[in-house]
Structure prediction request, 182 residues.
Amino acid sequence: MPALRPPDFPSGIGLLCFTPPMRLILAAFTMMFVIALAPNAQASGKKEIKTTISFHMETDATDNPKMIFPQLANGQTRYFRRMPEITTKDVVSFSPFPSDIGDGYGVVFKLKPAAVNRLAALTAANQGKWLIAQVNGRVVDGVLIDKQVSDGFIVIWKGVTLDDVAIFDKSMPRIGAENKKK
Prediction:
């Protein structure tokens, strides 16, 4: 049986592609590719429960139109930043309560220390402006900022459904139960 020889190309590429060191390099790249995809395959059976909470600050209508959105607040169309000031990632825990006006539930959120400082600076600098809350992409409430908020809590006063509260329960602890394991 004749020995396998690489094809003879004028450029010499045939010798490079079929030599034993090149086979080892190709095998190593193939293994790295398989290992890189392995973490994605492990988590494919789990479905992560996601909830989004975001608070958006009022801005001027003259700001970049791609960075703002209109929303009715207190009977007037106002403009709010698309980029939220506070998000789900800033929340440590929560506590729901029945809304006083009968529009579903309200929720108190306890914030992480960095978010507490950000909210204090935000509310100190933007008194007289509106801050709206979105839960899972829908606007549920808005508040007019009248003083600095530095206690580490932010409140949605109305518009949260019982289904939203159930999703919050699956994704974050209640206030007072932060250190307890689920």
Notes: The chain has two domains: 13-45, 53-171. Residues 53-171 form a domain with the Gyrase A; domain 2 fold (CATH 3.30.1360.200). Residues 20-42 form the longest helix (23 residues). The chain has four helices and nine strands.
